[in-house]
């Protein structure tokens, strides 16, 4: 049986969180002399002399509406990378507990676990990049606190079937994290709707990809109110800056623009794949539900270096297990993609 109380680290369960001035007082005041801010102002014209809302309620209300969840089922992090780190710190006892990942996958799960001195178990994907359930089952032990599933997966590009992930979550007593950084580029539905059916589910999303706002550092976790409370307990009090909060509110007012960009990227993706498939140096293009393509080539190292000479940077995945010979190419603008294809078509590469 899934038991959240039992899963949380002892020190986190006992933790008395920092109580910031702005958390204790939420009403309307005339004069704020409670937080040691500078009431005189700053060199900037726009006033940033006050601490931002620690729980970002305005934004959460909007995002809750859009996703049909409650505002208290949302955590906002300084990028979803912050959510990944907090999850490990909330649930994993260093040198005792472990997490399970399914490589090849996003590198931050492993780095965050390493930083926190938490062991990593691996259940590699199958050759066609599907989840290997037998391997997953055999790797899980009584100290496995968390499974990380990235869907659509980075760097392979494919998403996993929803029922497969649901089954995993139902048969596992730890936390299942579904990282949906690329979900907006997929035709599959998000897993957010499942947070009320699966008490151990955490869904991550980000404003860094589809929303085109990587520079703002803004990531989301969706989960039960109880799990979100744990995030709020552990997070730095003012983890999202006022500038980021303002900008995100503006962006949320222009959702249709974001939808249009996604459609444009999907169209560009199709054309890029078509053009890549005509190149002799390309031996395989993996199916993708993301804004990048994993491409198998005759010589990834050579092509990678050649492109650098052309001042074009792609991601070399040659040294990643199961991705030998592969480059991961982000879908750019039509113009950028054309220039890439032109460079890749040169005779020197064959
Ligand atoms: C890009 C990416 C993220 C985004 O991280 P942020 O910290 O929100 O920028 C998360 N997960 C995966 C799999 C990614 O590829």
Spatial strand order of the main sheet: 1-7-6-5-4-2-3
Average pLDDT for all residues = 96
Termini, distance in Å?
57 Å
Domains (count): 2
Helix content: 25-40%
Let me know the CATH homologous superfamily of the largest domain. Type I PLP-dependent aspartate aminotransferase-like (Major domain)
Q: Rg, please? A: 22 Å
Q: Bound compounds, please?
A: pyridoxal-5'-phosphate
CATH topology of the largest domain: Aspartate Aminotransferase, domain 2
Q: How would you describe the oligomerization state of the chains in this entry?
A: single chain
Strand coverage percent? 5-15%
CATH hierarchy, class of the largest domain: Alpha Beta
Please give the count of helices.
Answer: 13
Named at the architecture level, the CATH assignment of the largest domain is 3-Layer(aba) Sandwich
Overall number of strands: 11
**Unreliable stretches:** none
Strand count, sense and closure of the main sheet? 7 strands, mixed
List keywords for this structure.
350 residues; alpha/beta; Aspartate Aminotransferase, domain 2; Aspartate Aminotransferase, domain 1; 2 domains; 11 strands; globular; binds pyridoxal-5'-phosphate
Q: Any overview of this molecule?
A:
This protein is of the alpha/beta class. The protein has 2 domains: 249 residues, Aspartate Aminotransferase, domain 2, CATH 3.40.640; 94 residues, Aspartate Aminotransferase, domain 1 (Alpha-Beta Complex), CATH 3.90.1150.10. 36% of the residues lie in helices and 15% in strands. It has 13 helices and 11 strands. The strands form 2 sheets. A 7-stranded mixed β-sheet has the order 1-7-6-5-4-2-3, sandwiched between helices. Strands 8-9-11-10 form a 4-stranded antiparallel β-sheet, covered by helices on one side. Strand 4, helix 8 and strand 5 form a beta-alpha-beta unit. The termini are far apart. It binds pyridoxal-5'-phosphate (PLP).
């Amino acid at each position: 049986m899934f038991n959240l109380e039992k899963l949380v680290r002892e020190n986190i369960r006992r933790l008395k969180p920092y109580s910031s001035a702005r958390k204790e007082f939420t009403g309307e005041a005339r004069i704020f002399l409670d937080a040691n801010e500078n009431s005189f102002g700053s060199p900037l014209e726009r006033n940033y002399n006050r601490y931002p809302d620690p729980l970002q309620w305005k934004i959460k209300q909007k995002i809750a509406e859009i996703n049909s969840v409650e505002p208290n089922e949302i955590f906002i992090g300084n990028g979803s990378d912050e959510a990944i780190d907090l999850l490990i710190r909330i649930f994993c006892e260093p040198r005792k507990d472990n997490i399970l990942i399914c490589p090849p996958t996003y590198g931050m799960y492993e780095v965050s676990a390493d930083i926190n001195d938490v062991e990593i178990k691996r259940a590699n994907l199958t050759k066609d990049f599907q989840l290997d359930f037998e391997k997953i089952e055999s790797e899980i032990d009584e100290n496995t606190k968390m499974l990380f599933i990235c869907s659509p997966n980075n760097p392979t590009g494919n998403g996993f079937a929803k029922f497969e992930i649901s089954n995993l979550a139902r048969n596992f007593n730890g936390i299942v994290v579904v990282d949906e950084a690329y979900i907006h580029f997929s035709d599959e539905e998000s897993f957010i709707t499942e947070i009320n059916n699966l008490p151990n589910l955490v869904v991550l999303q980000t404003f860094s990809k589809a929303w085109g706002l990587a520079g703002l550092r803004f990531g989301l976790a969706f989960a039960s109110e109880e799990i979100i409370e744990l995030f709020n307990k552990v997070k730095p009090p003012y983890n999202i800056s006022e500038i980021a909060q303002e900008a995100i509110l503006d962006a949320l007012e222009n959702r249709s623009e974001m939808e249009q960009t996604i459609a444009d990227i999907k169209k560009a993706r199709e054309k890029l794949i078509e053009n890549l498939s005509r190149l002799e140096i390309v031996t395989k293009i993996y199916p993708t539900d993301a804004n990048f393509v994993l491409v198998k080539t005759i010589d990834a190292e050579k092509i990678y270096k050649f492109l650098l000479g052309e001042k074009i940077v792609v991601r070399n995945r040659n040294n990643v297990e199961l991705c030998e010979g592969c480059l991961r190419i982000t879908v750019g603008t039509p113009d950028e993609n054309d220039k890439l294809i032109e460079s890749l078509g040169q005779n020197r590469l064959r």
